[in-house]
């Protein structure tokens, strides 16, 4: 009898396990990160055959450093796009935060306090964006375009248009150091993504961000304080831009007032290529990370192939359009 019971239960347990595995696969297949991951794998395979040096340790390390800065900026951009907005000021805020941090250290402030000041600058600009958008009800694209010019202008005024060099050697650890064999920029990136993943998937704030992007009026009628969460979203975007500014300034060991030019477009590209809907309400922080990696691998591969930067812009633009098309069609099919 015992043997019969065991024999009868085993198939059912196996069936349950298969059902669980199938459910997990289907859940992942419908995730915004599914197609970006397939695209990343496909591009990596192509690059492996095109260039023998693609998988070398030095090249992968270089990709990691390049991806980390854009990926950190893209975290804040993801939050903004999820609410149906956008933040064009991230590149300029990144430059201003980096130059202020460098200036503070040159005036004798310890690196840790200088980094805190730089992050506060980014947070402040994010708050300004949030106030104008959430409370002033101004269009995000217009507000952040204006603050982009303001932040870039302030960076140039603060530095006189020249890089700020001669920074303390200890500061280089943030952009060039290693922890247990892992480069510090990559470690910072992973920590930022871990926090963002927890916020977006495990907290009420994350649910409200998705709800606002899905249907702002419905979210408001449900009791969500839309203005509060929009304000927080843009504050987060400014903060992540400043963190990326710290990493880049440390890597270059100088505060560059022209740093971050065009980075807002790369951040938007990473979010869209990661499967997020540009209209808001759909996307995943894991997809953004994959999108940033996809963009980094593509840039690296095209550079190794000797493709002209002008042609690269055409290729990247085409891929972004394709990503938007796929995202729209998936949304329609639902």
Describe what you observe in this structure.
The chain has helices spanning 2-29, 34-50, 57-82, 90-106, 111-135, 140-159, 173-176, 184-202, 204-214, 216-221, 226-252, 263-273, 285-304, 309-333; strands at residues 178-179, 182-183. The chain has 14 helices and 2 strands. It has a two-stranded antiparallel sheet. It is mostly helical and 334 residues long. The protein has a single domain, classed as ABC transporter involved in vitamin B12 uptake, BtuC, CATH 1.10.3470.
Could you provide a short overview of the structure?
The chain has 334 residues and is an all-alpha fold. Helix content is 77%, strand content 1%. The protein is built from 14 helices and 2 strands, in the order H-H-H-H-H-H-H-E-E-H-H-H-H-H-H-H.
